[in-house]
Amino acid sequence: MRxxxxxxxxxxxxASSPEVEVVLLTVEHTELPAPVRLSTDPTxxxxxxxxxxxxxxxxxxxxxxxxPYLFILASAEFPSDLEDAPAAAxxxxxxxxxxxxxxxRSFTDRPVVHMAVVLASSPDLVEAEYRNLNIIGVDxxxxxxxxxxxxxxxxxxxxxxxxxxxxxxPGLFR
Length: 174
What we know:
The chain is mainly β. The protein has helices at 6-13, 99-105; strands spanning 21-28, 36-39, 44-47, 52-55, 69-71, 74-77, 88-94, 112-119, 122-140, 144-150.
């Protein structure tokens, strides 16, 4: 069972609440010079030229002043709390630029994604957090790109990992 702050609980129980849930995403990959930080809410204007909106949060070790989470047009489906199911999420991006598909197709191995849910009024207080997930699939059309995020598929693990030879495991051959 996850813990939820009193403010978040009150906002969820109200019929109409000014509180906004924000999903913060950090995407890491060896080919990226720095982690990509994304937000699903235009909490504040970050710059005028170029016009950028985003959320300032210290989650995941980010410096709120120099490393804000940039706003993207997206919706997110959170991982479930089921114990016997792996954490799986879906991120749906509005396909506003052809470069989105190009970037997502350019990776040869899976990027690591960290996901957190915060309130726009308290972006440093994490309501839910999901770490070390991988992008496992991308599907899209002219209007949107759907990104599947989960643990690495267990089917890709090599079994057995090592061969049991005399050189590697001499105790088996006595």
